[in-house]
Amino acid sequence: MQSKVIIVITMCCLTVFVAGCGESNAIEKLAVVEAGAYDLSEGSENPITTTVLFPTVTKEGKFDTMALTAKGKSIHDTFLKVQNLTSLKIVGGQGTILFGEDLAKKGLINVVKSLRRDPEIGIRVKFAMVEGNAGKLLEKKFPSIEDNAEFIYLFLERAGWQDKVLFTNQYRFLRDYYDDGIDPVLPVFSYEGDTIGLKGVGTFKGDRYVTLLTFSETQILNYLIGNIKNGRLMIAMNDLEPGQNYQLSLSNINSDNDKIINTKNMQAEIKVKLKASVLEYTGTMDISKEKYQKQLEGQIEKYLTTNSEKLIAKLQQSQSDPIGIGKVVRNHLTYERWKSMNWNKTYSNMSIKVQVKVELTNSGKSI
Amino acid sequence: MTEANYEKTLAEFGDSFDLVHRSFHQDKFRIVYLNSLVDSQSLEWEILSPLREMSFNHLEQATDQSLFKRINDQEEVIKGILDGNVAMFAGAYTYLINVPGFEERAISQSERETVINGPHDSFNEVLQTNVSLIRRRIRSPRLKMISLSVGDISKTRVLVIYIEGTAKMSIVNQLKERIQAIKVDSITDSNFLIQKLDEHQNSPFPQFYTTERPDIAVSKLYAGKIIGLVDDSPNIICTPSSFFDFFESPDDLYQRWTIGVAVKLLRYLALFVTLILTAFYVSICTYHYEMIPQSLLQSLMQSRSRVPFPPFIEALFLEIVIELLREAGARLPTKIGQTIGIVGGIVIGQAAVQAGITSNILIIVVSVSAIASFIVPSYGMSASIRLVRFLFIIMAGFLGNIGIFFTLGIVIIHLMGLTNFSSPYIKAISPAFFKSWMDNIIIKPFYRNK
Amino acid sequence: MKAGDHLKERLHPFQLSILLYSIQNGLVVYTLPRVTAQYFGTNGWLSIIFIFILVNINILLIATIYKLGKGRSIFEIIEATIPKWVMIPIYLFIICVWIGLASMIMREYIFIMKIFFYPALPAVYFVIFFTLLGFQLLTGGIHHITKAFVVLICFVMPMLALLLYLISEFEFDRFTSFYFKGGTDYFEGSLRVYSAYLGIEVSMLLFPVVDKKWTKSLFIGNFFSLFIYLIVTFMCFGFFSFDQVLNDLYPIMTLFEYTEVSFLSRAENLCFCVFAFKILATTVIYYWGAQKTLENIAGKVKPGLWIILILATGFVLALIPGSVAHVEKWSNWLSNCAILIAWALPIFVLGVLFIQMLRNQMLRETDYAK
């Protein structure tokens, strides 16, 4: 046995030296794409524009980023063209992928599928949309931001912790796309002015971008989708009743979400229970008193209910279902009925009610 | 067998520097001995003065003591003299009188196996002293010893020690037979002997546990193992030994068992760190960049950016430097050894990074794995692990992660095939259940020990 | 240790159950969620349980042979009634299927490996190392193989812990409330799922080296496989949406791709590399089975020669296929043959045993009559 092991070991070494090291991906020769942006370009010949942003290290050992753009017929066509622009080997990274608004409106699935096919690109890669041209966002230099790609990556990471709905990556997008009872959403960035900012959330119908939800709508959507732990909510009470004009900020929200479906006449009710603590309140009531606290709870409930129903109506109109009502409906029906049903049509005509129950657990450190 | 006689004995030794021959009472008594092996005080007391005073008149009575041994064979006489006996030729009879005495090193603290708690004595080069260290600890007549001799020229004494009733007699006999079957001119140390006894002589792994601490030797005896002592060697050998024995330190038992377990687990962690860490760096930097988290990627790229070599060459280079440093430090006097450490560790490391020959992350990786390799208590095992590590690095440079796992497979399959006196080398895992895992890999709490 | 010492030693049931788990064709697990979804439709993961019951019946057959045959090896049982030359074509068929299947499993693994991690390295390197490891194991004999895999599998199992990272994305809603809807071909699907349990039929050749109460380890080992398959597939169905599973070639790979530890992202690489040990187990045990059968055909030849012959054949076979589809076609075909062997051989041996028992009884009766 022992002599055989020696043979084994020597053969291993021999093969190594005979073969030499095969093609390798030594990291200093790679341009690991930190962010890629895909846009629809004018002209039918080269319909896709790709911009990639990757970090480089200068001779002095300092960091820099480089953004390259190319137009092509498909994702990988543009990849090859981008590759011709640099001496480094461009490889897909685990960072962020941005889509331009126009491309998203036309449908993303072909792009996403070809990204999925590439084993270099991880399934955790973050997805987001850009209002306008996505490539521009990567190329533009902002005074306060050193590395645009890193900024977006970290931004999404943080936002994903705070609002679950903003946590989007390739896996989530594909999962919701393939699921017949829910539609995907992507956060939307804008780059007007001096910095990159979050605009809200774009909801999809299938793989096509349909509506943009504002930031406050996004927050409400977050609570309609599922249970939230340690969430937060900003409420500006001025838009509900003219007499009341105050800001309210809730934190440490633990919510409980329950969707009740009546399959006979296709009615849905979303019950949301919130437990929250007050972080900021600019109104006049003394909320440390139980009576006023109850009153405030009622006001919040009313605010959330009306806004939620408004939001749902907007979603129904665009036939987009990011809340996942379809999932619940599907699980209440037989297979045959679900398959024979035109869900999109049923959805837009469905009556969906929202019932919110708010409980304030504390009102912060001071009175 | 040739009849022993005075002239033949003298002729055999020729003109040795330390040969002494004297005669008393008109050549009635003649003695021959080597004064380098004989204790002059007891010689004077036991032999010379009685001879001078003629108290050997009743020869039969006087020689009927354990000090005297009547011998007829010439060869035995020569052997006896070489063992530190005085040969006395009295008429037709020849006696060997055992009055040995020679210079020996004092019992001191073991330098190779140090402990924080527990006894501090260690074996020295004299068999007698070593036996006394063991005998002192086991006060039982069940402690048995078999005396053998190895080497055609050196005739080195080898003792096989076991506790009757605890040790397996089949292994004792096997060991005896195997030691007797050894054909060499000489052995100088027990480490030499075990390489002759090994069943898998080409394996890089040491298969016999050796120690120079009597407390370990005794605890092995109590555990039913058999130990072998070699004259002129402070290391005793122990069989059957398993892979996990090499990861034990007596300190594990002398501390609270929870701490002992934690330390032991740390050692197995160290084993893996030593084997795999550098190889993993090579494989990740060469093939699997996608496994590096986004946050780490930048610093890794930055540190690699100025290095002109592929990670494989870079790692191999640094590992060899570390081995050079270690070897240089081991052979030098302690005071110069420290300088080597400083020059190697700080000056070369710093300069290599600044010169752009290596990346600083690799320096960290290589030093951590070097430190981890020194955590393994057995020097022999630690050396083999360091050797095997190079195989891992080469394979990682060649095939990436799968190369590491292929090597792991090769090593484990090899280890599982090893045996030490017919008992498997990795004993804890192979034949039985978690219970014996617990006993062998981890330490049992003392209250559960009988 | 001398070879003679090995023969005396019997394998411990615990070791055996781990060996039997590790030799089951684990590579199928990487496609299992998709296969069950494709052939059985919604909640197809339940099919794994049904097939598990079928496999248990198969194992029961083997255990019965052992009981009735009183520990004789199946070759001894067969050749007590049927002359060897009649059986040789069947033996050769078995050998060919087993070697072929082993090589195809190995090659399929290497293909997936190459697609994901080493697009530029030639496959022959991987085949060389598999063959070397196989050689190291086969020359050591079944005891060495068992002991080695008990340890090697210890490296594979911890990968399951990575599933904990995925629990936050797990949702029961995605299972849907439909059972086996939208499936295509139940029979084909059953064959594919059954192939995940293949490998255990080689245990028919283990009779001479096992402990008396070993049959329980067959069931334990098999149950272990069920547990692993079930937990992984179940996770998949709750983690991905149904159509997503259908559209993913290797859903388990994607599953592990999603895990991220603070110092490592994309652990699927590690998982899949460690999985080489499981592939090695399946491959080696089939080679071992082929070796034992060959030794039975021509007992006088040195075992070392057979090992080299088998490994060389396996090596060449593994290099033949040129594409994943090619490999899949062959491994599907061969695993169907292996399923046939897994069922036909025990039934056949049982038949032979019954004939022997009947004959014995008749002999005894005639003895009484006298």
From TrEMBL, chain A:
Keywords: Germination, Lipoprotein, Membrane, Palmitate, Signal. It is a lipid-anchor. GO terms for biological process: spore germination. GO terms for cellular component: membrane. Gene3D superfamilies: Nutrient germinant receptor protein C, domain 3. It is found in: Membrane. PANTHER family: SPORE GERMINATION PROTEIN B3. This is Spore germination protein. It comes from Paenibacillus taihuensis.
TrEMBL record, chain B:
Keywords: Membrane, Transmembrane, Transmembrane helix. PANTHER family: LEUCINE ZIPPER PROTEIN 4, SPORE GERMINATION PROTEIN. This is GerA spore germination protein. It holds the Pfam family GerA. The lineage of its organism: Bacteria, Bacillati, Bacillota, Bacilli, Bacillales. Belongs to the GerABKA family. The chain crosses the membrane at residues 265-289, 361-379, 391-415. GO terms for cellular component: membrane. InterPro entries: Spore_Ger, UPF0353/GerABKA_families. GO terms for biological process: spore germination.
Automatic annotation (TrEMBL), chain C:
This is Spore germination protein (Amino acid permease). Belongs to the amino acid-polyamine-organocation (APC) superfamily. Spore germination protein (SGP) (TC 2.A.3.9) family. Its main location: membrane. The chain crosses the membrane at residues 44-66, 86-105, 111-135, 147-167, 191-210, 217-240, 267-289, 301-321, 333-355. One of its GO terms (biological process) is spore germination. InterPro entries: Spore_GerAB. It is a multi-pass membrane protein. Keywords: Germination, Membrane, Transmembrane, Transmembrane helix, Transport. It holds the Pfam family Spore_permease. GO terms for cellular component: membrane. It is found in: Membrane. It comes from Paenibacillus taihuensis.
